[in-house]
Amino acid sequence: MGVTSESGRIVAGGRKGTYVRLAEGPQERHISRTDLARKPEDLGDPILTVAHLSDMHICDHQSPARVEVLDRLMDPDSTARELIDEIGTYRAQELLTAQVGAAMVEAVNEITEGPVGGGPLDLAIATGDNTDNGQYNELDWYLTLLDGGRLTPDSGDMLHYEGVATLPDKRFWHPQGETYDMRRGDHGFPLVPGLLKAVRRAIDSPGLEVPWLAVNGNHDGLLQGTVPGNTAIGEVAVGDLKAIAMPEHWTDEAKAKLIAGLVSGDPAALAMLAELEPYQVTADRRRRQTTLQEFIDSHVHDEAKPPGHGFRAGGEPYYRYDVNDEVTFVVLDTVNPAGGFQGSLDAEQLEWLDAVLASTDYDERLAVIASHHDVASLTNDMSGAGGTRRVLGDEVEKTVSRHESAVLWLNGHTHRTSVRPRGSWWEVTAPSLIDWPQQGRVVELISDGDVLTIATTMLDHAGPARWSGSIEKVGHLASLSRELAANDWQGPQVPLAEHPAAGTAQDRNVLLHLLDPRA
């Protein structure tokens, strides 16, 4: 069910108490944005059509390396909430990320042509946070979903579920009703018998039918997207103890200090994690932490299209890819290896970016930049042990803006749908596939010779708009995931139509005009 100018948009479809049900609503037509150029009478001919996916967060939701317990600090009744910006280490729908990924693969494969320009789908791009916790099994599941094959999204004891959904803790959702929980009692979350077995069934993914490019994100290599891997973390990930509770003597200030320390890479914060109360689970070596080079090299195999999904074995996490005779993708690595969830570049990569854009200027090509972080999130100046200078958003934006070939920057990270004019080019940020609205985009480049139009169209995964109550098929589970995401109890308490993650009409189905630099 792709949201195009000819089909409906998924909206609130009634309530069961405070719990929102979903339905297919009215169509949403494309809006022209003339911030940078006039709208041409005839948009012209298609140059490129791309499916843009971001923030899939394919998740091993039973892993001991996850710290779901910390997410309680952001619950509406938490006394520590005002001291903390955000956490995001637990979501009710994290059980279902593999099914959502499979449903989005199906949706992309159903695209026959660009909804505005009518050109064939040329490729797809996944702009980071492809995995949730930088684990080997998550990396394997994500690659299998996009390349095609069978995956079993289960770990530890393959016969029994061992995650937080069965803990005697009322703050986690218990879909099978083993114990009372606030999510069902106070928020109307459903009772779903058999779900914990259904989410661990094998999935047969056809894989994307078009070539696809990969981008590194902070969750692809950092613990919970924030903390660099080390020996202690590695041992926890593959071990048999999972944290389930915070010590009673911790004050709100201590809890806030822990979260701030994890974001900043403070070793004292890691020491505090060791104080969390554990319970025993089944150890699993497949949960080991991966390195950045392993993430890169895992994409390089005989069936990968294009080769390496853009990467080279033993190469850098950033690269150039010439799609056709007119368009070049310039893929960046904006993850700071020193830690922290926000991004930046190193000076060497900035120099490389400047040189690549100078080359596309000279060759009169169109340059599409892609990264995980958006420009506003390039604020992470932690230099780490090596003391290397980090380059932040203002400097990166100035470098890009010096080059007339740069027309578009695709990214994600914020889990919010947004579009921004950046002087002579457009920035287009995709929402996530784990939080509401669980969408991607179809992005088209169309030109009449003088004006270049970037058409963006929201794309829903293939799960039905309204969850039927069934858990028999992958699409049913993906549909449930979307509904759970729409009911996040920590999210903005606004009508679903006003939810900031979905953006406004000016951010969704839009025609973004700018002068064609080749004119």
Oligomer: single chain
Radius of gyration: 22 Å
- At the fourth CATH level, what is the homologous superfamily? Metallo-dependent phosphatases
Helix content: 10-25%
First-residue to last-residue Cα separation: 37 Å
Q: What is the number of domains?
A: 1
State mean pLDDT (0 to 100 scale): 94
Strand order of the largest sheet: 3-23-22-21-4-5-8
Largest sheet, in brief, is: 7 strands, mixed
Structural category: alpha/beta
CATH architecture: 4-Layer Sandwich
CATH topology name, in short, is Purple Acid Phosphatase, chain A, domain 2
How big a fraction of the residues is strand?
15-25%
List low-pLDDT spans: 1-6
InterPro entries: CNP_phosphodiesterase-III, Metallo-depent_PP-like, Metallophosphoesterase_PPA1498
GO molecular function: hydrolase activity; metal ion binding
Protein name: Metallophosphoesterase
Keywords: Hydrolase, Metal-binding
List the helices and strands and how they pair.
Blueprint: E1 8-16, E2 19-27, E3 31-33, E4 45-53, H1 97-109, E5 123-126, H2 136-147, E6 149-151, H3 182-185, H4 195-198, E7 203-205, E8 212-214, E9 222-223, E10 227-228, H5 231-238, E11 241-245, H6 252-264, H7 267-273, E12 277-280, H8 292-298, E13 319-322, E14 327-331, E15 345-346, H9 347-362, E16 366-370, E17 390-391, H10 393-401, E18 406-411, E19 418-421, E20 426-429, E21 439-447, E22 451-460, H11 474-485, E23 510-515
Parallel strand pairs: 3-23, 4-5, 5-8, 14-16, 16-18, 18-20
Antiparallel strand pairs: 1-2, 4-21, 6-7, 9-10, 11-12, 13-14, 15-17, 19-20, 21-22, 22-23
